[in-house]
Specification:
The chain has 2 domains: 1-72, Alpha Horseshoe (Serine Threonine Protein Phosphatase 5, Tetratricopeptide repeat), CATH 1.25.40.10; 91-140, no CATH class. The chain contains 8 helices and no strands. It has helices at 2-17, 21-34, 36-53, 57-70, 76-87, 91-103, 109-114, 125-134.
């Protein structure tokens, strides 16, 4: 039911903006259950962000992969997927996700360097190359 899904998404957004992330995640997931087609990207992306902030990188990974698959043009789920992979200790997967995000338009080197979830990657040569390649540019 699209109307119910829209209401669920609005509730999720309300909780998200109140920083009640567990409740927000629950409503994003309900949105996906009742109407996955219309809201897959935004509900999956935001559920993934909630999961990351709640300390559930595995759950975040699942949602972020779904978001990326639903709109492959977007870099946002890939960047956050890099965080989830990094938090799970998978350096190779995290670097692949970051490189894919950069290929799709992510270009904010200050965010890249300052994001705590990516600190485990900072000493990696591929991470350093990515930082140099982006060269301090703003997001495109």
């Amino acid at each position: 039911d699209p109307k119910r899904a829209k209401a669920y998404l609005q509730l999720a957004e309300l909780y998200f903006h109140k920083n009640e992330l567990a409740e927000a995640r629950s409503w994003y997931e309900k949105t996906l259950l009742v109407e996955p087609g219309n809201y897959t990207y935004i509900a999956s992306l935001k559920a993934g962000v909630c999961a990351l902030r709640l300390g559930d990188p595995h759950g975040a990974e699942q949602h972020l992969r779904r978001a990326s698959e639903s709109d492959p043009r977007q870099w946002q789920p890939l960047y956050r997927l890099a965080c989830a992979e990094s938090q799970q200790g998978d350096v190779e997967a995290a670097l692949r996700a970051l490189e894919a995000a950069a290929a799709k338009g992510f270009a904010d080197v200050s965010t890249l360097q300052g994001d705590a979830c990516l600190r485990p990657l900072a000493a990696e040569p591929r991470f350093q190359i990515l930082v140099r390649t982006l060269g301090g540019g703003a997001q495109r």
